[in-house]
Design goal:
The protein has three helices and no strands. By secondary structure, it is mainly α.
């Protein structure tokens, strides 16, 4: 026997699944952009420091700081993370505020 409530329930479930999948897709995009930006920032800063004949450990440290700042910038700008509380070292927060970052959106 045909029950119209079954169709309504199926449509509701499909819509909710699409909303969930869209949110998962947005989180995956945020994680990818944070990973990509962090890696590129790390490699650029570390490589530049090594070319400038800095000590390898110093170059790696500079790269890690740069990657952390860039990833924090993306995390804070994302609408997915609005309302989340995050604890940062004061030096990283100050570095993020004072860093000239170029945000590219394709």
């Amino acid at each position: 026997m045909f029950n119209p409530l079954d169709i309504v329930g199926a449509v509701e479930k499909t819509v909710m699944d699409l909303i969930t999948l869209h949110r998962i897709d947005r989180w995956c995009r945020l994680l990818f952009t944070m990973g990509f930006s962090g890696t590129v920032s790390f490699l650029g800063t570390c490589g530049g420091a090594l070319v400038a004949h800095r000590a390898p450990w110093e170059a790696i440290g500079l790269g890690m700081c740069s990657a952390g700042v860039m990833m924090t910038v993306l995390f804070r700008r994302s609408d997915l993370t609005k309302g989340m509380m995050v604890a940062l070292p004061s030096s990283e927060a100050a570095q993020e505020i004072n860093t000239d970052t170029q945000v590219i959106q394709k």
